[in-house]
């Protein structure tokens, strides 16, 4: 899974009906290497009640759909948790 | 999911019959880092009525097929929404 | 999906029996950024009658298997179309 | 699969209930190229009893869920083994 | 699929029982661009009787499991063929 920070939201009125009711958040993946912080945003459906500024855990691929009520929803990334803390003790 | 801009179209007469009737659009993924804007195009089947110049939301992988009527279509990227706006409030 | 050019072929006598009868082509993905043209080759099973020099549309991941007669074939990339033209009108 | 080193842990109280009971570890993928060691962390659920400092084998994608008791768990990376040794004899 | 060279082996005593009996080989993906040869190793389960020095064809993702006897094995990369030759005739 990916760790990132919620930095914004995305709105789309015209979309696949199966996406109705989902909140789409912009997530900026973390890197432990400052030189490569410039990553693309990921757009993830929220399933953890996350908001801007939250550090979140994002599940991608087919696993993302297992977090939603319906396995037929065309979503490939879902926020599955809000991170309390990360402890890195060995580099 | 990926955010990108529709920049063109692709035509293929000789193709898997399962692809008949689909529109294939060239999508250029957005990056928030100008130094890395030079990404490959993604070819995505359109399921949102998108056109050139639209900013779109693209779902990839097995999830893409859940947006189409038939789960047996060999497509790994589908445009599932046309973006109204993105609001990034926290970098 | 990925757009690329067929640049060669691959032969493997000792292989998973499920791969028998498939043609494996070397595909070089296109990039619209010359500085990054140096990509790895993709090996894709051909399902469109492609040959060296053809520009092709390649479907990857689990979707690739939906293009073949048998969903149990261990192939993660299939050429699903031969490209007639690509029109990019908005950069 | 990916080879990496466990460098820490991640805690998330608010999360998808399906994730309850799993331990999430921070894994730093190995590279044999020092110039590219600066990779992102992967967050992987532990299914091998791994701890900080262990070199581990991580399975990603849909395969990750086959290692867990329930295929509906939204996890895309699982530690499936603790590495005793790697012998590279041909570069 | 990916083309690479087998450069070594990996041993893990403590692992998911479903992995018992598999041989894990270290595969170094080929690049046709010397400047980017420095790729990470892939760890792949062997299903073609490969050994160190062999050039192999590796299938990744969910397709990898279709090469094994049991679709529930947590493996995301399998060596499905030993390459006799690659002929690249058009760059």
Q: What does the overall shape of chain A look like? A: globular
Largest interface: A-B, 37 and 35 residues
Query: What is the averaged pLDDT score of chain A?
Result: 90
What do we call the CATH homologous superfamily of chain A?
A: EutN/Ccml
- The secondary-structure class of chain A comes to mainly beta
Question: In this structure, how is the largest beta sheet of chain A organized?
Answer: 5 strands, mixed, barrel
Segments of chain A where pLDDT lies below 50 for 5+ residues? 34-38
Order of helices and strands of chain A: EEEEEHEE
CATH-derived topology of chain A: OB fold (Dihydrolipoamide Acetyltransferase, E2P)
CATH-scheme architecture of chain A: Beta Barrel
CA gyration radius of chain A, whole angstroms:
14 Å
CATH structural class of chain A: Mainly Beta
The beta-strand count of chain A equals 7
Distance between the termini of chain A: 19 Å
Share of residues in strands of chain A: 35-45%
What strand line-up does the widest sheet of chain A have? 1-3-4-6-5
Taken together, the total number of domains of chain A comes to: 1
Describe this structure as you would to a colleague.
5 copies of one chain form a homopentamer. Chain A is mostly beta strands. Chain A has a single domain (2-82), classed as EutN/Ccml (OB fold (Dihydrolipoamide Acetyltransferase, E2P)). Chain A is built from 1 helix and 7 strands. Chain A has a 5-stranded mixed barrel. At the D-E interface, β5, α1, β6 and β7 of D face β1, β2, β3, β4 and α1 of E. β2 of chain B pairs antiparallel with β6 of chain C.
